[in-house]
């Protein structure tokens, strides 16, 4: 687990509802049970400040960091998708973005990753499609220095679900269903303190589940087969995350000195 990814998990899953800020020492305490050492935390924080995700703030518990508005938008979008909140109703249309990509190859690569993250797939060269208009499209384009013309398509024949590798995604969900129980038990057994154990187990559960944000575009049920394993996987994730939340909240409160 990379420290930068772990920090996004901490701020998105635990600190977003607590003012989106925390002293560095508290963040270090939270990440210790999941194997992220203090030097790695501090290095990742510095990089996230340079990237515009965090900003320094003086708190009663010492020097700390708060998420920026850019980070809050990304974390809220990710949280809605992780916990399947505010699921939109599909009207049968497709949102199409004709992207004029930036010149630099590294920036283009980052743009492709960001467009995939928010739920678009490349249907043809520089033509991206999604069953919904994603709220973060403009900020993704702006961050990359790119522009796009957009339109709504009433339908495709066949539907462009082939733009996503649904076979690979199915295998990933099947694998997650097989591994999730063992993942939780392993981390619960690794810690003597019950609240710390709950935090570590839930943290790893959410971290692994969050990876589906990069692979699952959140297609409407109407476009998925009846035996789609993502539904069972989502139900299992929600059940385990809810079960582990009370102990997790107590551990976070201890780390924050609340």
UniProtKB/TrEMBL annotation:
This is PaaX family transcriptional regulator C-terminal domain-containing protein. Residues 3-69 form the Transcriptional repressor PaaX-like N-terminal domain. Pfam families: PaaX, PaaX_C, PaaX_M. Residues 89-149 form the Transcriptional repressor PaaX-like central Cas2-like domain. Residues 164-253 form the Transcriptional repressor PaaX-like C-terminal domain. PANTHER family: PHENYLACETIC ACID REGULATOR-RELATED TRANSCRIPTIONAL REPRESSOR, TRANSCRIPTIONAL REPRESSOR PAAX. It comes from the Bacteria. InterPro entries: PaaX-like_central (IPR048846), PaaX-like_N (IPR012906), PaaX_C (IPR013225), PaaX_trns_reg (IPR011965), WH-like_DNA-bd_sf (IPR036388).
């Amino acid at each position: 687990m990379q420290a930068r990814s772990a920090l996004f998990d901490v701020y998105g899953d635990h600190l977003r509802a607590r003012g989106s800020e925390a002293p560095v020492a508290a963040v270090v305490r939270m990440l210790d049970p999941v194997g992220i050492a203090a030097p790695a935390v501090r290095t990742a924080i510095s990089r996230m400040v340079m990237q515009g995700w965090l900003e320094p703030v003086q708190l009663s518990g010492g020097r700390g960091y708060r998420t920026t508005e850019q980070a809050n938008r990304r974390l809220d979008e990710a949280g809605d998708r992780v916990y399947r909140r505010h699921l939109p109703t599909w009207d049968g249309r497709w949102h199409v973005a004709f992207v004029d990509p930036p010149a630099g190859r590294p920036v283009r690569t980052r743009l492709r990753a960001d467009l995939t993250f928010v739920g678009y797939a490349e249907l043809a060269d520089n033509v991206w499609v999604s069953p919904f208009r994603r709220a973060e499209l403009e900020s993704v384009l702006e961050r990359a220095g790119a522009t796009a013309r957009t339109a709504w398509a009433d339908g495709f024949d066949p539907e462009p679900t082939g733009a996503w590798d649904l076979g690979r995604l199915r295998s990933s969900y099947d694998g997650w269903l097989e591994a999730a129980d063992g993942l939780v038990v392993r981390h619960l057994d690794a810690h003597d303190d019950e609240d710390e154990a709950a935090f570590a187990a839930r943290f790893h559960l959410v971290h692994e589940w969050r990876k589906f944000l990069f692979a699952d575009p959140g297609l409407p049920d109407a476009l998925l087969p009846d035996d789609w394993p993502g539904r069972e996987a989502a139900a299992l994730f929600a059940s385990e995350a809810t079960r582990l939340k009370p102990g997790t909240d107590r551990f976070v409160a201890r780390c924050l000195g609340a």
